[in-house]
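Subject — a protein and its fold
Fields — amino acid sequence, structure tokens
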Amino acid sequence: MLFTSIEFLFLFLPVVLAGYFLLPFRYGLKNLWLLAASLLFYAWGEPTFVFVMLGSMAFNYLMALLIGAVRERRGAARAALSVAVAGNLAVIGLWKYANFVTATLRGWFPSLQGAIPQTSFVLPIGISFFTFQAMSYVVDVFRGTVRVQRNPLKLALYIALFPQLIAGPIVRYSTVCEQIEGRRTTLDMFARGIMRFLYGFNKKMLLANLFAAVADKAFGMSDPGCGMAWLGAACYTLQIFFDFSGYSDMAIGIGLVFGFRFLENFDYPYVSKTVTEFWRRWHMSLGSWFRDYVYFPLGGSRVGKARLVLNLAVVWTLTGVWHGANWTFMLWGALYGVLIMIEKLADLPRRVEAQPVLRTVYQPFTLLAVVFGWVLFRAADLPAAAAYLKAMFSPGAGAVPGLAAYQLGEIAAVMCFGLLLSTPLVRDLRRRLDGSAAAAATDGLIQLALFACGVSYLVISAYNPFIYFNF
């Protein structure tokens, strides 16, 4: 079930809210209600997948209990942690990568096709998100940064909590453990949560979906031509930001309504001055996860240059693989890995901050690198990515002369709004007006009017793609 669906907006969410606020916190009734609602939310589209998640919950619950019991015996604790990590990776590997691995092996070794059957696993929604959350909990128990949760229902709520279940942000147990035990929703929190949800919904429906229509057309053409190729890449760059950050806004807003405070997941990444900075601002929960559970344990940056290169190679290989079983994602991860290696070895983040002239040159390069990266991310396969990149640098009319100019005319006003909203300018203006009752009321009315437009768009159109739903 998507947040941007009629069923969610006018059936699921109102019923869950009504039940939640009618029930007392006593006996854990609110938590039980949210857990039941979260399992229903996940099972809505494909009920059998909920058993994969329930199995993950049970496995990580038991492994954390075992690690907690033997923590003083470091050898035994490490062995238990290794089993837990291997089990979680096996879950992702089986469901997410088995089809890709078997297809690749069968292609590489045709003579062994009889011995290597082609698997056909259907990917459970959000498996990478809830598996990473569960794995971070077990690792934190091993490190002693969180206490073992002995109530399986509370741990299940942490893993299954529906606002962030299928597309993040990836929430650490340490962030919400006290909120699971006891929380309170004030009127101010409720209002801020609703407004945050409206911001995200409107970004998704009125910006991301419009950019998606142009991007899909460009990437779906065998010969888009130079102008259409650049326009499609620009629209996809804006689409993926408003799509994913909009979903994160909705998740954070719904969390606030129920008394949960999730950490931010985006910080205007397209104003970044370096590629390293971009990844501190984009999908921050994933970046911090790899930093804390992979990069730092490998030694981080406080090692020699050769080891630094190795550490970054490991992190960015895993980042690419996390996003999907396709060579395009692996090359996308490798691109960022190489760029960040160069930046760190040349000390570019510090130099760019200190030298305005260098910043003037390097910041446009950063944005261009991000756009090329999104082409790899969006393309169906490596040949399609190569053909699209070639079209971007091959001046000509393309398959449909004049199409780029026509599409640009159709989308120009929306692109202007998108470019403006992808910078902190509107946020800063809102902060200056914060505290003004008139400004707050006006903002609320505008968001409600836009929400009505978004809902009408839902009613009249079945086109409602969501990119990160697939991860």
The radius of gyration is 23 Å.
